[in-house]
Specification:
Blueprint lengths: L4 H9 L10 H4 L2 E8 L5 E8 L5 E8 L10 E6 H6 L9 E7 L5 E11 L4 E10 L12 E4 L11 E5 L8 E4 L4 E4 L9 E4 L2 E6 L2 E6 L4 E6 L5 E10 L4 E7 L6 E5 L5 E6 H11 L18 E7 L4 E6 L3 E6 L5 E6 L9 H4 L4 E2 L10 E5 L5 E5 L18 E8 L4 E7 L13 E4 L5 E8 L8 E7 L5 E8 L8 E5 L4 E3 L6 E10 L6 E8 L4 E8 L15 E7 L4 E5 L8 H6 L10 E7 L2 E9 L6 E9 L7 E11 L6 E7 L5 E8 L14 E7 L4 E5 L8 H6 L10 E7 L2 E9 L5 E9 L2
Parallel strand pairs: 4-34, 24-28
Antiparallel strand pairs: 1-2, 2-5, 3-4, 3-6, 6-7, 8-32, 9-10, 9-33, 10-11, 12-13, 13-14, 14-15, 16-17, 17-18, 18-19, 20-21, 21-22, 22-23, 25-26, 26-27, 27-28, 29-30, 30-31, 31-32, 35-42, 35-44, 36-41, 36-43, 37-40, 37-42, 38-39, 38-41, 43-50, 44-49, 45-48, 45-50, 46-47, 46-49
Length: 757
């Protein structure tokens, strides 16, 4: 192919700024009139006065990194709706109060403010904010530097959410240069926390709090009303909201609950009951394994929800990692040390995954999660059981480990680990999380904690090449300094938060005559109408190196009954031109097409064609979600087009929203289309790339994909063995999927994206 993948991804997703000539930015004067310090030195409120605040669509702030820093700037965009909701802006009032967070304490910060208006025009201003010093009693800003942050900018994350209780400002956010950028404003000393919905969620005793980045503290719920006596250990992402781990009056550290963003209880899993029922059904006596309070028989320390197969994964430090069916609570599998007590009960052994001979089982693990390639990642502490007897194996070192699970074959295979030093042990707490593929954050929370009076916490970052990008050491007491630590993206936060979902979908391919049109299909799920922008591009693709674009693309939108919902040839002549410009989506060629439509939930098809006697050429059809914060979303996206060779492959692009990873199944079909079209692509293959052009996954025949079982169980197995499919846990960012024919084959293919979230 003649163009780089990085450039191609840029083509597939967005072709640049709106057209010139907008006037609201010229007509509106916005003056910075003052600043008010926030509840901590990391927060300030900038007072603005606008001559016409009603024309403002959104405001972005960007904090310039310190000189010499390689971290991406901390930046956030407030939509008008968010400013109104929080009271920072009022209709018809000139004053605007903009929260700016993430400031460098004890430093003069340079902050750029960007204003975007309803006609798509924009302008910028710059101010300085002098932040007071902060008394860093946790010493995050003065670590022992085992590896200073390198100048490598390929590391996928620049900020770290540290779950700590080393002061009354829990939790803390640092950057990868170990500089504090935010601390909790609620006067809470506890590491039971999580980052969710653009806020820190913090537990204290039986109560859950929401700590917004602007310093607002909200009491959400006191769970003593549901028999909880303590919220402990971790808070993790669930299927809908957050998973809390609770002590009850009857059982210690063996009950988990999912709550929504407002703290309302959605679902509860009682592990004593679930495991006792399974043991009784298998002929064992559960009273020999499951014990009431105050016995710490289970010691639940972390939980993770796997969207790929609707499994709740729970870490029991005393025993094993256990997978439950989310809805029923039934045990699916157990992974753990077979020399521990649990393995003496046939009823539990019947669920056990056999650890392959070249792999090690996890011991005393923390922080289970599912990686982009659908493998199980966890921090293997290596400490045996402290309550259950026999206690099982004891290792002299700790290690992050990744396993490929095959529940059907009942096997677990270790596919990655990081054993930096056989002599380093972190016997309790700790974590490992993968951000973008193969970019890791490792938290050794309690180094040599059981054998020395001066234990340390260590934070270590690895890039996709396996290179150490930073490595810091901090004195700690117990696990107080860094119980768990999670990669965080604060370089482009959006208010309101955009949930994990595919956004701004596009497909590039050859558009010709007859069957060689480009056909995009999508479904709007949920109950609310959704505003969608659709574009068909051609001439502007020459700006990105293509020499044979479609000269004059046109588009038509159909509903599920085949009714025409909208059509456009030249976008400037259409009724949506002003709104397209206001959203920054104005095509750069007048010959290109674009419409904005508000659509009810249902199925839709957009067809991109040439106009009149156009010669075939490469075109791009796109769908942009203009209302991503609602309860409806774009789902089950597909595009049918012609696949050739060279530049004439079929290329689909999508963006994952900025809150958390999204789970998607990608398919490339050919033979199964034979009943609908002629000259199908007989043997399609697909390759998935991230925004840096790194290959994340590739597949030719779907049954050879490592996630074949999950694809099949989800009802998404292609009907022909020659067709391709893979499953991906995509971090926030841009992706491209290239569909080609095996051995240079050509024909009609269908590329599809199914959002499992």
């Amino acid at each position: 192919m003649r163009i780089s993948l990085l450039l191609l991804i840029g083509v597939a997703l967005n072709l640049g700024p709106p057209s010139v000539g907008a006037t609201e930015a010229d007509d509106n004067t916005i003056t910075i009139v003052g600043q008010t310090p926030g509840v901590t030195p990391f927060i300030s409120q900038v007072h603005l006065v606008a001559t016409n605040s009603d024309t403002l669509q959104r405001i972005q702030f960007t904090i310039a990194p310190k000189s010499g820093s390689v971290t991406r700037p901390l930046s956030a965009t407030y939509a008008r709706s968010s400013l109104l909701e929080r009271g920072y802006l009022q209709e018809g009032v000139a004053d605007i109060y903009l929260p700016v967070y993430g400031l460098y304490a004890g430093f003069t910060n340079t902050v750029t403010l960007s204003y975007v208006f309803t006609d798509g025009s924009s302008k910028e201003d710059t101010t300085t904010i002098v932040a007071e010093a902060f008394d860093d009693t946790c010493d995050y800003q003065s670590p022992t530097i085992l590896q200073a942050r390198t100048d490598d900018t390929t590391l996928s994350y620049d900020y770290i959410f540290v779950k700590e209780r080393c002061n009354r400002f829990s939790p803390s956010i640092i950057d990868t240069e170990s500089t504090l950028r935010w601390v909790g404003p609620a006067d809470i000393f506890n590491y039971t926390s999580a980052f969710f919905d653009n806020a820190a969620y913090q537990a204290a005793a039986t109560t859950l709090y929401r700590l917004d980045l602007d310093g607002t503290v909200t009491v959400l719920h006191d769970y003593s009303d549901v028999d909880v006596v303590l919220l402990h250990h971790n808070i993790d992402r669930g299927k809908v909201g957050l998973i809390l781990e609770a002590d009850t009056t009857d059982y210690i550290e063996s009950v988990v609950m999912e709550v929504d963003a407002a703290g309302n209880v959605l679902k509860t899993w009682n592990l004593p009951q679930i495991i006792s029922d399974a043991m009784l059904a298998g002929g064992d006596d559960p009273t020999q394994f499951v014990y009431p309070s105050p016995a710490d028989w289970f010691h639940n320390n972390a939980t993770f929800y796997n969207r790929a197969d609707d499994t709740l994964i729970i870490s029991s430090r005393e025993n094993f990692v256990i997978g439950l069916d989310y809805e029923s609570g039934a045990i699916k599998w157990i992974l753990g040390d077979p020399t521990k007590k649990w393995h003496q009960f046939p009823s539990l052994v019947s669920y056990a995954l056999t650890v392959m001979s070249d792999s090690l089982p996890p011991i005393g693990q923390h922080s289970p999660s599912i990686t982009y390639d659908n493998n199980l990642l966890l921090f293997d502490n290596g400490l045996n059981s402290l309550f259950q007897m026999p206690p099982g194996m004891l290792r002299s070192y700790s290690s992050p480990r990744k396993y490929r699970l095959d529940p059907a074959a009942r096997t677990a295979t270790e596919v990655w680990n990081y054993e930096r030093d056989q002599g380093v042990t972190s016997p309790i707490c700790g974590s490992v999380y993968e951000d973008a593929p193969n970019n890791y954050l490792v938290d050794y929370s309690f180094v040599d904690g059981l054998t020395t009076e001066t234990p340390y916490a260590e934070l270590l970052g690895l890039n996709a090449a396996g290179e150490k990008v930073f490595h810091y050491q901090y004195p700690t007491e117990n696990c107080n300094e860094a119980f768990n630590s999670v990669p965080l993206h604060l370089e482009k936060t959006s208010f309101p938060a955009i949930e994990p979902r595919p956004l701004n979908l596009s497909t590039r391919g050859v558009i010709g005559n007859g069957e060689d049109v480009l056909i995009g299909g999508f479904i709007i799920t949920g109950t609310e109408d959704k505003k969608v922008a659709l574009r068909a591009l051609g001439p502007s693709l020459t700006d990105f190196g293509l020499t044979d674009p479609l000269a004059d693309p046109a588009l038509t939108l159909y509903d599920a009954s085949g009714n025409v919902m909208a059509t456009n040839d030249d976008w400037e002549a259409g009724t949506s031109a002003a709104e397209i410009t206001a959203n920054g989506l104005a095509p750069t060629s007048a010959k290109e097409s674009a419409v904005v439509q508000t659509l009810a939930p249902g199925a839709y098809t957009v067809v991109a064609t040439g106009n009149g006697n156009d010669m075939p050429g490469i075109g791009l059809v796109e769908a942009y979600d203009l209302s991503p914060a609602g309860n409806s979303k774009l789902a089950n996206i597909s595009t049918r087009g012609s696949v050739g060779t060279g530049d004439d492959v079929l290329i689909a692009g999508f963006i994952v929203g900025d809150v958390a990873n999204a789970t998607v199944v990608l398919r490339a079909l050919g033979p199964s289309l034979a009943s609908a079209v002629s000259e199908v692509l007989s043997d399609p293959s697909l390759t998935v790339y991230d925004g840096n052009g790194v290959v994340l996954a590739t597949n030719d025949n779907w049954q050879n994909d490592p996630n074949m079982l999950e694809i099949s169980q989800g009802g998404l197995a292609p009907t022909d063995d020659a067709e391709a499919a893979t499953l991906l846990h995509g971090a926030p960012g841009a992706y491209s999927v290239i569909v080609s024919g095996a051995d240079g084959g050509s024909g009609i293919s269908l590329v599809e994206l199914f959002d499992l979230d």
